[in-house]
Amino acid sequence: MRERARETPAGAASGPxxxxxxxxxxxxxxxxxxVASTVEDWSGEWTAAGDGGDLRLPVEAGLRRGFVRGRVTxxxxxxGSELALEIVEARWWVHRVxxxxxxxxxxxxxxxxxxxxxPAVAPLVPLGLVLGAASWLAILARLRxxxxxxxxxxxxLALEQPKGGDEQRSAEKPPPIAPR
Length: 180
What we know:
Elements lengths: L18 E6 L3 H14 L3 E5 L2 E10 L2 E14 L2 E15 L1 H19 L10 H14 L6 E2 L1 H13 L4 H7 L9
Antiparallel strand pairs: 1-5, 2-3, 3-4, 3-6, 4-5
Helix pairs in contact: 1-4, 2-3
């Protein structure tokens, strides 16, 4: 069951900070190295400090863009380590260009709906269809969601990759290719 959204006044604190955890069998140094390389892959900023560090990640959620600032701490756990990502700050804004393009395509696309009732807009139907399809291909089909949970999934993937990749890959057989 989903949690209900909490309403808070603008500028007010939204409650306790969100903490995401990742347990791994690798040691703390390897876990922090995976965090640093993943932050670099995400085009974020990483500042290492002691048993963790601070990070700033670009995030996306549909038509919204933003960044997340957080603290990463690595602690020793049973036979490995645990990464904890505490979200300190999250800032979001609407991607205005995408919204403007969608609104610009929606106005003539309404002609496709209204032309049986208002025959004067019938010449705009082809334009509405083209602009609707173009906005779908340019914006809606490319929407992504990349947040802190996806970041930790990428860190986990980086930790699972073997260190001696070239030697191990040469020993593995490639998957068979079946002709159709």
